[in-house]
Design a protein that fits this description.
single chain, 6 helices, 5 strands, 18% strand
């Protein structure tokens, strides 16, 4: 039971504060994985504005948004929960409520990502409440 509680806290610590992107890839050399990260690097302000954090999960290692390595068991449980195979690319969007909002196996444009987020009720409220 201890492992399950420990695993839940990996994402739960961000609940109600951040939206999460889980990037699953077979290797950090994967072309689609590198292209996805480059697209996100170009839109850092948009990611920050939407309170998005990125987890990078590879078969050999998993890194949280703060750059710390996750335990192997935590990474395996995330892969299992979000049905991400070791040999393919998967991106998962998790809302501030902890619910899965998107799960796809191809490149995600920032336009599509931001469009999905900006339609969420919580994001609509954030946009209304944020001056400017």
């Amino acid at each position: 039971m201890k492992l399950a509680a420990q695993n839940i806290s990996v994402l739960d610590q961000y609940r109600w504060e951040n939206r999460i992107l889980l990037l699953f890839a077979d290797t950090e050399k994967s072309a689609i994985y590198k292209e996805q990260l480059q697209a996100f690097d170009k839109e850092e302000a948009g990611l920050n504005d939407r309170d998005l954090l990125i987890f990078k999960i590879l078969p050999q290692e998993a890194i949280n948004p703060e750059g710390k390595f996750l335990e192997e068991e935590q990474a395996l449980k995330l892969r299992k929960k979000y049905q991400a195979q070791n040999d393919e690319y998967t991106i998962v969007l998790i809302g501030k409520d902890g619910g899965q909002k998107l799960n796809q196996n191809n490149l995600l444009s920032t336009e599509k990502l931001f469009g999905i987020i900006d339609q969420m009720p919580m994001r609509q409220r954030e946009m209304r409440e944020t001056p400017g």
